[in-house]
Design brief:
98 residues; alpha+beta; Arc Repressor Mutant, subunit A; three-stranded antiparallel β-sheet
Amino acid sequence: MKLKDLEPAQLEQAANMLKAIAHPMRIAILSFLEDGKKLTVTEIHKLLNIEQSTTSHHLGILKDKGVLISKRDGKNTYYFLKHQQLSNIVDCVSKCTV
């Protein structure tokens, strides 16, 4: 499907997803979740070296905008990319910043 074929509602959803991703910490979160990885908020906050509450805030935004989904397994909630193609955005942006 080409960009020109998207309905206005789909374009709005895509714009909201891009807005949600457009933050350094959130880009970092996406990079940790590439290749089908599933991580808990604790694992992500340790990787980012930021407060767990801040990590939860960023995860909530990404989940709310349809970038991430979560699955509960016992006491843990695992976060992962809703669409693996989203990791292409991180790759593209990283190549454009060199």
